[in-house]
Design a protein that fits this description.
Length: 348
């Protein structure tokens, strides 16, 4: 029903009810110095085997009949799963059914010829090269965030504060991103961050290379603001990075955007994409090498499983392209370029 009435979802939920729900949950969880979401997930993972062992023991001791226990367990599982999903929808999931960002912001999204896509990719690559100049590096020559994850988390909201000066769609978030203690597990399933709607917390994988960390943080904050679709969260995160006063955020957003544009161009015109890639500066290439090394280090069966789970999840939320919806960020990048110097039209 919600998907058939996106304008009503936008007005009643995404812009009215959700900001009060998500913001207050995140603010309450933010009083804790650790990720409450991670604690709850770990507790659930430990609780399920314990309940299974308890059920087996009860059957073995004759306290329960196996058939009756199986029926009761199945009924409980349906009840708790349904209640959990209902809570997910009420706390955040309705945002999948809101108006497309392009519609809300009045952006001219339309198909583009490969030549326009090549112009976009070239412009982003050149801007990325320029933004990389003068940034701190580690011993391998890759980007180094001087103040680490803590600094990124503390500074992330500044980009949204700047972005919101002419666009009320993007208020400055009051929630601070949390690091995930077991970040290596997220890396093994190919996840750089995750927004947990039950606590309102944006959770970040701290093992990712520094060049990707600011953009990943801005992306999860976009989810916290109610932009559930991945392509839109990518674009909103990019806009927040571009408007950020700090050069490491601006560079990270441009690096991600240029990557998406080049991938789309490669699918449309591989020789043109190769020509654009040749424009990458040596410093940017070092950062891309660090990103590939990180991905290769953790790639394995768990990564493939994580991709399949993520793909299935996105499809259940109405993103019929699954993980391919990430590439549709390029349509919004093209629309931004057509709009001129302002990232978005002023819609006050």
């Amino acid at each position: 029903m919600a998907r058939s009435a996106p304008a009503e979802v936008e007005r009643l939920f995404s812009r009215a009810l959700y900001p009060r729900l998500g913001g207050r949950l995140g603010h309450a969880a933010g009083l804790l110095p650790f990720s409450l979401a991670e604690v709850l997930v770990l507790a659930a993972v430990l609780l399920l085997p314990a309940l299974a062992v308890r059920a087996i023991v009860r059957v073995a001791r004759g306290r329960d009949r196996a058939k009756a226990l199986l029926v009761r367990t199945g009924a409980d599982a349906l009840l708790y799963t349904g209640a959990g999903y209902g809570l997910f929808v009420l706390l955040w999931g309705f945002n999948y059914s809101r108006l497309p960002l392009a519609t809300s912001a009045g952006m001219p999204v339309r198909p583009a010829p490969p030549s326009e896509l090549a112009e976009l990719a070239t412009a982003l690559v050149l801007a990325t090269n320029e933004a990389r100049v003068g940034l701190a590096e580690d011993e391998r020559g890759a980007l180094r965030i001087v103040d680490g994850f803590g600094g990124v988390a503390a500074r992330a909201a500044r980009g949204y504060a700047a972005l919101g000066t002419n666009q009320p769609l993007f208020p400055a978030p009051s929630v601070r991103p949390k690091p995930v203690f077991l970040s290596s597990l997220l890396s093994r399933v190919g996840i750089t961050g995750i927004y947990f709607p039950f606590t309102g917390e944006p959770n970040l994988n701290t093992t990712v290379p520094d060049s990707a960390l600011p953009f990943s943080t801005a992306h999860e904050l976009a989810h916290q603001q109610g932009f559930a679709r991945e392509d839109e969260a990518n674009f909103v995160g990019y806009l927040a990075c571009r408007r950020h006063p700090d050069p490491d955020f601006r560079y990270s957003g441009l690096l991600a955007a240029s990557h998406y544009a080049i991938v789309a161009l490669h699918q449309a015109d591989a020789p043109a994409a190769a020509k654009v890639l040749a424009e990458r500066s040596a410093a940017v290439l070092r950062d891309e090498a660090a990103l590939r090394e990180w991905a290769d280090r953790y790639r394995g069966p768990a990564t493939e499983m994580g991709d399949r789970v993520n793909d299935a999840y996105l499809r259940t939320q109405g993103q019929k392209d699954g993980v391919r919806s990430y590439g549709r960020m390029v349509d919004l990048l093209l629309a931004e370029r057509r709009a001129g110097s302002s990232p978005l039209p002023d819609r006050r």
